[in-house]
Amino acid sequence: MGFIPVVVIALLALLCIPLTFIILLLARKLRKAVADMKEAERQRGEVVSFFTDFANSFRDYDDPATTMSTMAKYIAALVEADSVAIYEMRYNFLLAAGVYGKYPLLRRRDAVADNDPATLLRLLRREKIRIGEGFIGEVAASRESDCVADALSDSRFKGFGPNIGSVAAIPMERDQRLYGMIVAVGRRAFSDEQIELLEFISTQVIMMLSLLEIYADRTRQQRLNQELEFARQLQSSMLPQSLPAMEQFELQAYTGSAKEVNGDFYDFVEIDKDRLLVVLGDACGKGVPACMLTSMTRSFIRSAVSHFTTMEDFLREVNGNLYRDTDEERYVTLGCCLLNRNNGVVEYARAGHTDLLVYVRNHLRSFYPAGAGLGVLPNEFATFDTISFELRRGSTLMMFSDGLSEALNEDNEEFGVERLKQVFFESSDGGDSLEITVNKTLEAVRRFAVEQADDQTIILIRRR
User: Fold this and answer.
1) Are residues 211 and 252 in the same domain?
2) Are strands 363-367 and 146-148 parallel, antiparallel or unpaired?
3) Among 39, 48, 269, 461, whose CB has the most other CB atoms within 10 angstroms?
4) Which domain range does residue 315 map to?
5) pTM here?
6) Same domain, yes or no, for 371 and 453?
7) Cβ count within 10 A of residue 119
8) 288, 227 in Cβ contact below 8 A?
């Protein structure tokens, strides 16, 4: 055969080993990417299903037990639980308001037919739970979510039977008031993501419990007014309760609603230990529909962040979800700043939103990369450009909603971006704190405009 051909064959064989390894590695990554896409699609469908049924449930309040049990059903589907019970606070006791599935945390389980949820709920309501009593009562007293991976090994579940598994309990709290509990039971331990989703959904359940109570004895007009008020509360409950603590950046945020509920929202989302995503959005419409669109968008944002790759891919995923699941008249504008704690680099993208204003060393710059509103175009036609820059120490950027720039005076003239820039520049150039800059901006708009006709939101970010 000859020495040289043998050597050549040997070299080719050696080369094939790493090539084969690379091919197998790429195939594994491809399978994982496909699996991640399927999981994201599944989560998207579950979230959309929940919010759709939540919105539809506004139509009828005649049967509170059925309404809350329906809520429990969709919560169970959302977190892959076998059963869910919703408890409400009544006279310092927790009473079952709705239940789905073969809920095992009932001491008289033998008295319930498997196919009789009405009997199960009636018996659950007889077992009043005191605050601080048993696992559910202890979680309610602490106001902190808790999850037991193996309830059979926990003495607090003694006497409930052999088919418990994992139990997650989520207090429903708003404005330091405990409204009740969500308790989910499953064969497998609940993940941190599922617990976070239960905590997020709890704000919508609070709203439903409150609406059921009020709609029982209100006139139609009173109900409409109360619906708007609860929509405001829902919107407020979805806003961050505090600003992120960051050594490298200082943040300040403000949002103020107009006479009716609109759709401004903002959020701070940790991508990883080095990056923080700051979003400011405006959902079209008013009242409960705008709030539900805001809720859906925030859920899509949180879902997309869990497998964040690039800002463009992130916006395309949120856009695709909204385009599929909203009608032509529903869309959201969004501005996004990705902050890097290590080097102070900011990546900015927008989807039909207002400009980004940046004060740097005695001058002002505007950034407005291209991008259509989310839900307006299918992904085949939607593009989202990004821009990256280093935010130098002492520099400040402003994100704002069009409720500021489009405020009208008595001559129907807009306040405009140029006036907004002037106020921002003068305040930043004078060394004002971020809080003072926000106040000066709002005061300038209020002096100019006849009235506040739209929500007004500002986020300021300064590099320390």
Assistant:
1) no
2) unpaired
3) 461
4) 234-463
5) 0.57
6) yes
7) 12
8) yes
Q: Are residues 380 and 255 in the same domain?
A: yes
Domain end position, chosen among 181, 215, 249: 215
Tens of pLDDT along the chain (464 residues)? Answer: 454 554 444 444 444 555 554 555 555 656 665 565 565 555 555 555 555 555 555 444 557 888 889 889 989 988 999 999 999 998 888 999 999 998 999 876 555 555 577 888 888 888 889 999 999 999 999 999 999 999 988 888 887 877 788 999 999 998 889 999 999 999 999 999 899 989 988 988 888 888 777 766 555 566 667 666 766 666 667 778 889 888 899 999 998 877 666 678 899 999 999 999 999 998 886 666 777 788 888 888 988 888 899 999 999 999 998 988 777 678 899 999 999 999 999 999 999 999 999 999 889 999 999 999 999 899 999 999 999 999 999 999 999 999 999 999 988 899 999 999 999 999 999 999 999 999 999 999 999 998 887 889 999 999 99
The DSSP call for residue 58 is G
SS3 342: coil
What strand order describes the sheet that includes 146-148? 129-130, 93-100, 83-90, 177-186, 166-174, 146-148
Q: Please count the structural domains in the chain.
A: 2
The residue from 215, 244, 260 where one domain ends is 215
